[in-house]
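Homework-ish question, so no full write-ups if that breaks the rules, but can someone show me the predicted structure for this set?
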Amino acid sequence: MSEFITLDRNDPRFESYLLGSFSSDHCALPVRSLHINSRAEQITFQVLPVAAIERPPMILILAQVMRLDLLSLSLTPALAAWALFGFTSDAVMGAVALLFLHAAFFARNDFVDHLRGVDRLNEKGGSRVIQRGWLKATAVRKIFGLFFLTGAALALPVVIHHPMIAGLGIFGAIFGAFGYSHLRWSQSGWLVGGLSLFLCVGPLLCLGAYEVSAKTLVVNAHVLSGTSVNQTLVWLLGSLFGLVAVVYVETRHLISIVIDDEAELQTLPVRFGFDRAKKTLALFYFGVAIVLAALLFSLFHYLGLLIALPMVLIISRLGLAMYRVSSPLSSSLVTLLSRSNYLHVALGALVIALCLL
Amino acid sequence: MTDSFAKSYLLAMNLKVYAPDDFPSYLPKLNALYDDLFSHGKGFRAKLIQRISAHLELKADAVHLLAQTIEFIHNASLLHDDLIDRSPLRREKTAAWLKYTPEYAVLAGDYLLARVMLNLSRYGNLALIQYTAEMISNLLEGEWIQDSLIEDWDVSLTQLDRVHDLKTASLFKWCMRAPFIAAKNEGVELHNTLDEMGSLLGLLFQRSDDLLDFDVRNYEGKAVMGDLTSGYMNSFATFLTRGMNEQRRTKFRECKTIGEIHQLIGEAEFFKFLEEFDEHNKKVIRLYDHHAENLLRLLPSTAQGLVAELKILPGVLYWRKA
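A: Not a homework solution, just the prediction itself:
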């Protein structure tokens, strides 16, 4: 087999090379893509024997597919809600189900973004396992199926005990697992996609976690407890994590604005333009600071504001750094991306620590 | 035959793509400015146009137009670049913005672009006009984004490649495709292949230029370290500083001479990185050769000889030898 092969969409071999099903002992790494996601699409593949590709152990590959580095986005809001309102056995089951559904979401995203070409152009997009030849696209699709079914099976007893979860879960699944991947391509993708992300990994996730919790505020502070107070706290908690998740994802979109614009993806930065998008994200950071202060005030009153202060200052600095970013290709954006992920983890750790103390 | 073609690309050529009566006689210093600008350039892009056009049997006036167009656009970008970067020299001579005035440098660049549009619209090939406008737009986008990366010391190689694809590669892509557009040969697969080849040539050219800045294969003895001292991390600099900690990166960007770079990294280590960088680019050359092979079946029979000529270009551009 020659080292390279160039195929366009009209070629009957195109899909099999893209999916990796053209051969059992060779894989095709996409090295150049033109006119992605259009009828004129052309891809040049580097064809290599499977044995020639250096692969890490399968467990590490799977961890990468599962995007464990981003697990906080899915799990932390639920863990924080359970720390606040009390763990139950259903919560533990729910946590494991979430892990698999998180992995399923990202595996599907990898598959879709590879086919559409976004991850072929964006060298930081996705888990990179397909583009590096570690797994074929068909394998990633199978992994999605496996993770999704496992997650659904683990979630089923929880849903049976708590039917309200079913409604939230189905809504979340439709938007989160499938809608987000496709909505980005529609005219209103930036808004609907952003909103669905905010809700699914924010308030809805926390509401769902609350439903399977003990529903008893464990924080024994100067706060009146009761259902309406609990609901307020759940929404504040959910909004906090939802906002940070949106900041993370839209920072990613800001980094890939050049490619997304070319691919006609309707992300917030593409719609708003670089300058307005970064200012919007800076505002979101300040929004996070305000919601955090409101949450901790609700829990601990003025002591809560004091506790929130260091984190509010850190978040404000991040917001200012975002405001000052000068280029979509700037390395400071990459730094801000990882810091927004750490922020998500740190906020979860803060809430959980306060509940445990 | 192949060697002589290669050598002709490397030699400086006082290629005059314009005549004094191409420009109005009443604009003071304009012709002098252009004489300074165009002299001593190798006219590589114009030569590439000429070679491709010869195989397509384009008429002399069309070839002249294409060669003039690309040289005008390229040199317009040089006029503006030198002012933006405040570079004092261009081709070993005082840069136009310094020798004349910054205002004249800006206007002279704009005027060249305006003449391009005028000449092309007179020629009347709408597809060519559209493609040229697209190319100029990409060039300017690349320049804009590159300017936003000054003093960004952590920019990645892939991000830089994106800039170079807009900035440098756009011109090479145009050189590959414009003669075919002028010949009214607009097959999609053909132009995709030419586009890829142009893009890869642009990448190789830029990376070679970036190596030159570190005195690698600097056969002409050009000034070095200009990028780093201007606050710009070129592709090889980015490659050298991968995995460096913050302290070493700071020392790297403070280096003023090649000696200091070698001292910081270690001379053996420097050449090891160079070998690795060259390996990456050998893959790019193999990819280019693959597209050149594909081009064979897409070209009319009368133009098949073009492929052999195009295959020598990576050697000329990257290895800087015939």
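Now go work out the reasoning yourself. Hint: Chain B touches chain A at residues 145, 148-149, 152-156, 158-159, 162-163, 188-189, 192-193, 195-196, 199, 286-287, 290-291, 294 (CB under 8 Å).
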